[in-house]
Amino acid sequence: MRHLLTLRETSESDIRFLLDTATALKEILQRPVKKVPTLRGRAMVTCFYENSTRTRTSFEMAAKIMSAEAINIAVAQSSVAKGESLKDTVRTLQALQADCLVVRHPSSGAAHFIASQVRIPVVNAGDGRHEHPTQGLLDLFTIRQIKGELQGLEVAIVGDIAHSRVARSNIWGLTRMGARVRLVGPRTLLPADVDRLPVQVYTDLRSGLEGVDVVNVLRLQTERMEKGLLPSLREYSRLFGISVQSLRVARPDVLVLHPGPMNRGVEISDEVADGACGVRSAVEEQVTNGVAVRMAVLYLLMGGGGMSGQD
Ligand code: ASP
User: Fold this and answer.
1) Which one in 43, 109, 131, 155 has a CA-CA gap of 20 to 30 Å to 7?
2) Is the CB of 182 under 6 A from ligand 1?
3) What is the pTM of this model?
4) Do 116 and 160 have their domain in common?
5) Range of the structural domain that residue 26 is part of
6) What is d(CA 105, CA 111) in angstroms, rounded to the nearest whole number?
7) For each of the chain's 311 residues, which pLDDT tens digit applies?
8) 15 C-alpha vs ligand 1 centroid, how far in Å?
9) Do 183 and 41 fall within a single domain?
């Protein structure tokens, strides 16, 4: 049994294989008829205990493009609302003959717990502030596609690192592929274990962005944030908001990513988000690439081959 739970536990060769598979599958998205029979007769079930637009929809599209059934559990209307435990819910979905579970949960570690309870592949679609491996993969995919390679790139991850699962999956995935990672943000939004991460830390935006090839901008995760971590949104935006002006110290061809949803005017300006004023923004390409990457993950876990790690 194989899963995709974290990028920390995914080897360089598996990441490379996933990215190469996504590159091959992306071509299907450009066809007038986006349908191949690859996963016919398989059923993917998504079970999201937290809100989502991009991730859930792109998993559904990815499954349908490859002719798998895509069943979405509306958690708020399910027996979870009657108090059913996570273990009973996922075992029920397995008994209903799901071939793969895609799960998002507010608790860090939920995906590992689920994987320990079922025999079918589990994909972590975000567990608390821990990891979001398919987002990490689509960020790597997007950077590699635009920059040509990941090895040797200088990447700044800016903002609310402490509460971000995207940051963690990026840190592990990027460093494994040979990029150098800087974390840039106010001290209060850095994770407690930052000294043990393979990164350089900057608490000043200007020095953090100096000479970087890529800036990955994070959303302020107010839903996970205790009070008092920020003086005010205006202050945060002034000191750490990514604008055309703040990007001037980066490399001239700097690439800007954001996992979405964006708080425009807080962590990112409209111009940067929309790729205006000569800024290279990859925000919409990230979304499209998310479908290709999730196709690769479902293909490799549900029947089209396997990955070596993550038992
Ligand atoms: N969509 C990403 C996540 O679910 C990023 C975010 O919500 O800010 O982690």
Assistant:
1) 43
2) no
3) 0.95
4) no
5) 12-132+288-301
6) 8
7) 489 999 999 999 999 999 999 999 999 999 999 999 999 999 999 999 999 999 999 999 999 999 999 999 988 888 888 889 999 999 999 999 999 999 999 999 999 999 999 999 999 999 999 999 999 999 999 999 999 999 999 999 999 999 999 999 999 999 999 999 999 999 999 999 999 999 999 999 999 999 999 999 999 998 888 787 888 899 999 999 999 999 999 999 999 999 999 999 999 999 999 999 999 999 999 999 999 999 999 999 998 654 544 43
8) 21
9) no
